[in-house]
């Protein structure tokens, strides 16, 4: 459901706290003004608002200049998601600006866009499980091939159908398991994304949110909930 607010400017503030590498970004029109990386998820609470203040100062903008808020919706880290969504909803309410939510798996897929292979994205779901999403890779804005799922890590190899590009922070989390799989069973048409593309960035989130904003795909803060894909632990 869309909000009743229309952006007074196309300055988008994006917040991503869905995984262990959080970030903030400011995008004006189609130009990235700045991006701020947050510390580990255990300290997001201490660093999120100071990081926002630093980002605004470094870009010469004020919070009142922001015309829309974008947030990474999950799946991902429960604590980080709750903090990010609560902050985004509070800012949208107080500034009376539109709120845009983008699934985290889609953000990660967008960082591997414009290449011929489908993209499979994996995020750690704890307890030796992963969240998996599959997307078309040839377009600038990812298009999901199927709904995202949560599955045991041991079942992941059977879901990786070549040709494919595999990405996401779980590549690092389960490096040992995947190394064994890659060494013994990996099809040559399954490639791995470079390390710098495996973690979501608020800059990518802001770009996808801008496209949604232009299409009127906003959400009321009162209706926005995290995309968990499993009960909280």
Question: What key phrases describe this protein's structure?
Answer:
six-stranded mixed sheet; Nucleotidyltransferase, domain 5; alpha/beta; 233 residues; globular; 11 strands; single chain
Number of helices: 6
Q: What's the CATH architecture of the largest domain?
A: 2-Layer Sandwich
Distance between the termini: 29 Å
Average pLDDT number: 89
Number of separate strands: 11
- Percent of residues in helices comes to 25-40%
Low-confidence stretches: none
Strand content: 15-25%
CATH topology label of the largest domain: Nucleotidyltransferase, domain 5
Name of the level-1 CATH class of the largest domain: Alpha Beta
Can you summarize the main beta sheet? 6 strands, mixed
Q: Which structural class fits the helix and strand makeup?
A: alpha/beta
Oligomer classification: single chain
CATH homologous superfamily identity of the largest domain: ATPase, nucleotide binding domain
* Number of structurally distinct domains: 2
- Radius of gyration computed on alpha carbons: 17 Å
Shape: globular
- What order do the SSEs take from the amino end to the carboxyl end, as H and E? EEEHEHEHEEEEEHHEH
In short, what is this structure?
This protein has helices at 44-59, 78-95, 104-110, 170-173, 175-185, 202-214; strands at 11-16, 23-28, 31-37, 68-72, 99-102, 119-126, 129-136, 143-144, 149-152, 164-167, 190-192.
Q: Would you mind describing this structure in some detail?
A:
There is one protein chain. This protein is an alpha/beta fold and 233 residues long. It folds into two domains: 11-103 and 200-214, ATPase, nucleotide binding domain (Nucleotidyltransferase, domain 5, 2-Layer Sandwich), CATH 3.30.420; 112-197, ATPase, nucleotide binding domain (Nucleotidyltransferase, domain 5, 2-Layer Sandwich). It contains six helices and eleven strands. It has helices at 44-59, 78-95, 104-110, 170-173, 175-185, 202-214, and strands at residues 11-16, 23-28, 31-37, 68-72, 99-102, 119-126, 129-136, 143-144, 149-152, 164-167, 190-192. Strands 6, 7, 8, 9, 10 and 11 form a six-stranded mixed beta sheet that branches. It is globular. 45% of the residues are buried. The model has no long low-confidence stretch (mean pLDDT 89).
């Amino acid at each position: 459901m869309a909000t009743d607010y229309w952006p007074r400017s196309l300055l988008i503030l994006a917040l991503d706290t869905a995984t262990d590498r959080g970030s903030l970004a400011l995008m004006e029109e189609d130009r990235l003004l700045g991006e701020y990386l947050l510390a580990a998820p255990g300290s997001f609470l201490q660093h999120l608002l100071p990081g926002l203040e630093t980002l605004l100062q470094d870009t010469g903008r004020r919070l009142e200049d922001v015309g829309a808020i974008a947030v990474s919706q999950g799946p991902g880290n429960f604590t980080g998601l709750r903090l990010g969504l609560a902050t985004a909803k509070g800012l949208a309410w107080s500034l009376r600006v539109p709120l845009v939510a983008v699934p985290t798996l889609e953000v990660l897929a967008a960082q591997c866009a414009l290449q011929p292979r489908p993209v499979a994205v994996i995020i750690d779901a704890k307890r030796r499980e992963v969240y998996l999403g599959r997307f078309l890779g040839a377009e600038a804005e990812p298009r999901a091939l199927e709904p995202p799922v949560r599955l045991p890590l041991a079942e992941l190899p059977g879901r990786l159908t070549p040709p494919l590009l595999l990405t996401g922070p779980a590549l690092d989390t389960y490096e040992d398991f995947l190394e064994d799989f890659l060494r013994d069973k990996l099809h040559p048409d399954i490639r791995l994304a470079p390390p710098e593309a495996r973690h979501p960035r608020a800059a990518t989130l802001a770009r996808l949110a801008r496209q949604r904003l232009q299409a009127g795909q906003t959400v009321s803060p009162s209706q926005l909930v995290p995309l968990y894909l499993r009960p909280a632990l």
